[in-house]
Amino acid sequence: SCLSETFNMEEAKKYESKVVLSKDGKKAEATKLMAVMGLGVKCGQTVNIEITGADEEAAYEGMVAFFKENL
Known about the structure:
The chain is α+β, with helices and mostly antiparallel strands and 71 residues long. It is built from 4 helices and 3 strands, in the order ααββαβα. Strands 2-1-3 form a 3-stranded antiparallel β-sheet. The relative contact order is 0.28.
């Protein structure tokens, strides 16, 4: 899976906000590697990011930058 090879949970852990990735109706907290791997994301597939919490704007910017640099 493309996402599990490049995804770094530390990026999501930088923020107080909860970061949830979803694909095809399946969701996974971005800080839980096994759950992220369970999404089975392949290179080129779309993943939705849901962020809720006190610093959600900063978390959104950080996660978008991470994905642009690494995928």
